[in-house]
Write a structure and sequence with these properties.
This protein has 512 residues and is mainly beta. It has one helix and 48 strands. The two termini are 36 Å apart.
Length: 512
């Protein structure tokens, strides 16, 4: 295993040592499917590079092949004969692609990769990239590898860190309607397939918002705390230091609000619930939903009041339109009533916030009232609004049942188009693109707000037909789960409310 001679033909083109880090990105893992490797940036044109695959994480002391090199590789050398060697292109990247076959024997198999460059002077190796990995799974299905987060969490958020490891932030245990929020965070490491503690927030949070700012920091705003009460506090997560630091508080407590990064780099926060009274009925927090907005300026670290929406909203949707305005759509609300004082409602209406004038105006209504949904980005400024809670009434009593109706919002033209209905009415579900005009909606809950029934079923929406068909089931029923697209190209699903009203710590992956 003499790497000194593996690329001896490249000596003349070898680049001098540089301080710039060598990065290795890996995409793939579905079987059958393609795996793409990308090592970058090159220090000079046609720099010699090698990407080493392995079935083990190492470490491998570099002194095994170079007595002058005291560093270690984070991969084994048992597959060195399969390594890819070549030169970077004019764009500074060295790319490799290969295809995995369809084989049940490959399920859950880990593959590790690391890239190196060469200098052939004091040491053979110059720069050594970050280690990277994939874990294999059958294409077009969910895979549960029995990997659990350290805490059971619903309504958590996920931050993708610069080291390609997702950070699971906050969320709550207990029950969906009686949350005990966490201040803890967890880091998932694909190489070890385990979770480890991340930095702790200044306060427990669930049903909070998490917004990436132009400077790379993340604004964590509001949410409920340990006793299920909304809070006004905020904090910033700094990926450079992997720490949370307190930020200026909002003017009022909010949970179930939206937070939207505006083109000017500021953040619009809209609506939400400001208090959680439990008397005289379980629906009393609806009366505490607000119509106010406020704007966070990262430059000054301060909040200023924004214009009021036309109606109170919580559990609504915020869509940044291509013209820079924000559509605030649907949500749970309330109306004044002479007999009862107030009555709950779910909105069809839409408010349009214009940051240029700091004004709010009425927008086009949906065909169906809805709240507590995850709109799916269909591309070309179109969004799928499917399901969601669409009725909360006192007489007749309806404690928030979901709808199966679906429609598409065109953010460019500010119009709505009805499409085929879901097979199962659901709210608090998640969705993502599958490619080729197809989109997967997963889990959520049927039942009602007061008595949700988490679902494991999924449905696939096809833009060609504007209709839904059944999709592969989740391994675990989930409502209010967190999800993120991994750097390797799979969707990772975390926690959520599950069967029996409890919160799960389980996770699973969707393989494309």
């Amino acid at each position: 295993m003499h790497l000194r001679y593996t690329l001896a033909l490249a000596v003349a083109a070898a680049a001098p040592a540089v301080a710039q880090n060598l990065e290795l990105d890996v995409q793939g893992g579905a079987t059958p499917g393609a795996v793409a490797l990308d090592a970058w940036p090159a220090a000079t044109f046609f720099e010699p590079m090698m990407i080493v695959p392995s079935g083990s994480r190492g470490p491998t002391p570099c002194q095994l092949f170079d007595v002058n090199d005291w560093r270690s590789l984070d991969v084994g050398l048992e597959l060195l004969s399969l390594a890819w060697a070549g030169f970077s292109g004019l764009d500074g990247h060295y790319r490799v692609q290969f295809t995995l076959p369809a084989s049940p024997a490959l399920q859950d198999l880990p593959l590790y990769f690391q890239a190196v460059t060469f200098q052939f002077s004091f040491t053979v190796l110059d720069r050594i990239s970050n280690p990277n990995a994939i874990r294999l799974g059958n294409a077009n299905s969910f895979r549960d590898r029995a990997v659990f987060s350290q805490f059971d969490r619903a309504f958590a958020t996920v931050i993708q860190r610069p080291d390609r490891k997702p950070l699971l932030v906050g969320g709550a245990r207990g029950q969906l309607l009686a949350q005990q929020a966490w201040a803890t965070t967890e880091v998932y490491d694909l190489a070890t397939d385990t979770f480890s503690p991340g930095p702790t927030m200044s306060t427990p949070r669930s049903l909070h918002t998490c917004t990436r700012l132009p400077n790379g920091q993340w604004l964590i705003a509001g949410g409920v705390q340990q006793t299920n009460d909304p809070q006004a506090t905020c904090e910033l997560y700094d990926p450079a230091t992997d720490t949370f630091v307190p930020a200026a508080a909002m003017s009022i407590p909010r949970t179930g609000h939206t937070a939207t990064l505006l083109p000017n780099g500021k953040v619009l926060v809209a609506g939400g619930i400001q208090a959680m009274p439990v008397t005289p009925t379980q629906l009393q927090p609806i009366r505490e939903i607000v119509n106010s907005t406020e704007i966070y300026d990262p430059a000054s670290g301060a909040w200023t009041a924004g214009p009021n929406m036309g109606t109170p909203r919580a559990g609504h949707v915020a869509i940044l339109r291509p013209n820079g305005t924000v559509a605030l759509v649907g949500g749970i609300s309330w109306d004044t009533n002479l007999l009862f004082g107030w009555l709950p409602a779910v909105r069809r209406s839409c408010d349009i916030f214009n940051p240029a004038t700091s004004t709010m105006a009425a927008g086009p209504q949906m065909a169906t009232a809805r709240s507590l949904i995850d709109p799916v980005d269909l591309g070309n400024d179109r969004y799928l609004f499917a399901g969601g809670i669409n009725a909360i009434t006192i007489i007749p009593f309806n404690p928030g049942n979901p709808t199966a109706a679906a429609e598409i919002y065109n953010a460019a033209t500010n119009t709505w188009t009805s499409v085929g209905a879901l097979a199962t009415a659901r709210g608090n579900h998640r969705g993502w693109a599958l490619g080729n005009g197809r989109f997967l909606l997963t889990g959520g809950a049927s039942g009602s707000i007061l008595s949700p029934t988490p679902l494991a079923s999924t449905e696939i929406f096809d833009l060609a037909t504007n209709a839904f068909t059944p999709g592969p089931a989740l391994n675990v029923a989930r409502a209010g789960a967190a999800e993120t697209m991994s750097h390797q190209g799979q969707v990772q699903v975390f926690g959520g409310g599950t069967t029996g009203g409890s919160i799960t710590a389980s996770t699973e992956w969707w393989y494309f």
